[in-house]
Amino acid sequence: MDVRSAYNSGLTGFQNASAQLSTASSRIANAGIAEIGMTGNQGAPESLSSPAERTPISLTTELVNLKVAEFQAKASANVISTADELVGTLINTSV
């Protein structure tokens, strides 16, 4: 197994987890704004014009997505850590 590929795999997984975390947290933060826009209360913002922004957001689903992103980040960190240990072992063995 190529150590660089393990590092790259870990970094890619970590970046994907970060993107998923960002998306889910953004949708949770905007959920209250979307509700206000749908009910017409409190001077709804005019920027909610696209159908995707007006669809109700399931907070439960987004919280699950946050937890999935957390586990993905932890798994990716373990891959990076294991690759680092492997390199350390190879260096110690060859010296």
Report what the structure shows.
The structure is a single chain. By secondary structure, this protein is mainly α. The protein has one domain (3-94). It is 81% helix and 0% strand. It contains three helices and no strands. It has helices at residues 3-39, 51-54, 59-94. Helix 1 (3-39) runs antiparallel to helix 3 (59-94). The longest helix has 37 residues, at 3-39. It is rod-shaped, with a radius of gyration of 21 Å. The two termini are 21 Å apart.
Highlighted features:
95 residues; mainly alpha; 3 helices
Question: What's the short story on this structure?
Answer:
With 95 residues, this protein is mostly helical. Helix 1 packs antiparallel against helix 3.
Helix-strand blueprint:
Elements: H1 3-39, H2 51-54, H3 59-94
